[in-house]
Amino acid sequence: MEIKPDRFAQQIASEALKPVYLIAGSEPLIVQECADALRAKAREQGYSEREVIDADKDFDWDELAMGLASLSLFATRRLFDLRLPSGKPGKDGGEALRKYCDNPPPDTVLMITAQDWSRNHAGKWSESITKVGHFVPVWPVKLHELNDWLLRRLRSRGLGATPEAAALLAERVEGNLLAAAQEVDKLSLLLGSGDAPPANARAGTLITAEEMLRLVADSSRYDVFKLADAALSGEASRCVRMLAALRAEGDQVAGLLPIIAKELLQVATLSRVHASGGNVMNAMREARIWDNKQAMYRRAVDRHPCGRWEAFVGEAGRIDRMAKGREAGDAWLALERLLLAISDAKARVLLA
Known about the structure:
Blueprint: H1 5-13, E1 20-25, H2 28-44, E2 49-54, H3 61-69, E3 78-83, H4 90-102, E4 108-114, H5 124-132, E5 134-138, H6 143-156, E6 160-161, H7 163-173, H8 177-191, E7 206-207, H9 209-215, H10 224-232, H11 236-248, H12 253-275, H13 280-286, H14 291-303, H15 306-323, H16 331-343
Parallel strand pairs: 1-4, 1-5, 2-3, 3-4, 6-7
């Protein structure tokens, strides 16, 4: 059975433990919290012995089979905590996990956690897990989902926030879910919640934007990949904010441009396919563009004609020369203008 992360704790609290669980995704905080909830449930149910197994690329899967089959001298119920960093057990691992699901040993729970997951990771082994246990896919929290995620987390701490305050908090912690959780916990301590609130408790009231600005640190964590995605997604104001943050953190234009230029070349290629009447979806598949990014590329192709994407590629080359001292000009200003032109469907002239 497949379960969403925000329903996982409630699900396991209302049922007997299954023989196997797979918790996988690229949000370490959510993976960790789901795993913690399962460990706590196992302790409540008398699974007092826990064995941690790191399944790296050199792991011998026969060791897992022998461990699962062995009898414990100290406890009748055992939890095997299998760490699978890549999310891919390989041929031998997949077969070992499938066999486990076919005949799971009694009084044993196998919890598998992975810090990476996509549709390419799935296989017969994961399908077997969903038949006899639970699979919790942890997808990255997208920008448009972050406000709701923060509001749910605030409510779990007895706090609330105005829409403006929630948006401000999302902006301050964007790209850093661990920092978001820490800020919510800090707000809970400062403003108070629970059975014994402090003297300055504000439980039951809404945090305003002014209070949020005063209480929350700027913990946003940006990188050039998010910057390129923001430009292709048409998020002009976000591009400006991210570029300023990267500059403040010490990044250099020459270091940012290779990724931006690569994305521009990719979109220019797709735009030529579109202009010639070709199948853009097939072109994206051939270029091995991930499924969750195909809509972003398609919107980018539709935003500007083919000629403009060619001009963007040329401008990226000019900015690169600026950054390396081979051409006069302010490389940071030119890059900001380029990103704004990419983001804005109404842009008519490439700013020089």
